[in-house]
């Protein structure tokens, strides 16, 4: 990815204090707070590209990653982020916890709270569960994805990836394609991009569009050719088999034919349009493997930006708590 122009690794002390205690939803952030997190993340890219990837502003702090849904990339991204900042990071997955023995979310929160963590990073299958948990604990809480509601750090890392490739955000056109109805990634992206004056479009079959989509400030398309025309960024989404209730598409083959991103469909976007995907990808379902691995794809850059954004979020939230 193009090199960005920020100075070498500095300290987070150059930024004004971040006023939020938790990061639950993009909807809670003001435009300047979003930009502040993206700027902080630029510093973290520098740190992560050094030989010695260490910036121990969180030394002595404890971070618990509490994942009620399986996750590889998001959990390891948060783990690496915390460790690069010097925090003690503990991973708890639901299978090994008491939740599978019937403990309620609130009991779990109280137990973890007694261990005096400084931050809980939580993924849960139910929308709103992470916010509920944040009301029951004394530490900062970061939403790592709650049901089909929000996935704020994904939207931040997507914005950072776009900004670094295109040199700007405002005025661009981003087309988000696929399973919009079940996607917390789409929701957080629509909120964040809208707040930064990026034009957004969603493209999906009617069955994969959420009710009330017309009320969000986005253009809605059911045809890929129309939706991709003039797009600067093509963001593909995974078909969320686990969240889609019932059969939302006639068949995977049919879906790929009309909505799978291949060279022909990508040709409808701008010639320099970049291709994104939050992962995990269903190759051959929503995206042609040849496109996923092509020069147009920035998918691995998204993963790199993910660590930087999570470092920025942890670094921003924790000092705020000390001053509270
Ligand atoms: C996304 C998620 O879990 O919401 N993936 C991720 O964070 N790596 C998108 C998805 O599951 O399709």
UniProtKB/TrEMBL annotation:
PROSITE patterns with a match to the protein in the record: CARBAMOYLTRANSFERASE
Enzyme Commission number(s): 2.1.3.2
SUPFAM superfamilies from the UniProt entry: Aspartate/ornithine carbamoyltransferase
GO BP: any one term: 'de novo' UMP biosynthetic process
Pfam families: OTCace, OTCace_N
Pathway(s): Pyrimidine metabolism; UMP biosynthesis via de novo pathway; (S)-dihydroorotate from bicarbonate: step 2/3
Coiled-coil stretches noted in the UniProt entry, renumbered to this chain: none
GO molecular function terms attached to this record: amino acid binding; aspartate carbamoyltransferase activity
Binding site for L-aspartate: 101, 184, 238
Gene Ontology cellular component annotations, sorted alphabetically: cytosol
Enzyme type, top EC level: transferase
Keywords, in A-Z order: Pyrimidine biosynthesis, Transferase
Function text: Reversibly catalyzes the transfer of the carbamoyl group from carbamoyl phosphate (CP) to the N(epsilon) atom of ornithine (ORN) to produce L-citrulline.
Family (UniProt): Belongs to the aspartate/ornithine carbamoyltransferase superfamily. ATCase family.
Protein name (database record): Aspartate carbamoyltransferase
Species this chain originates from: Devosia ureilytica
Encoding gene, per UniProt annotation: pyrB
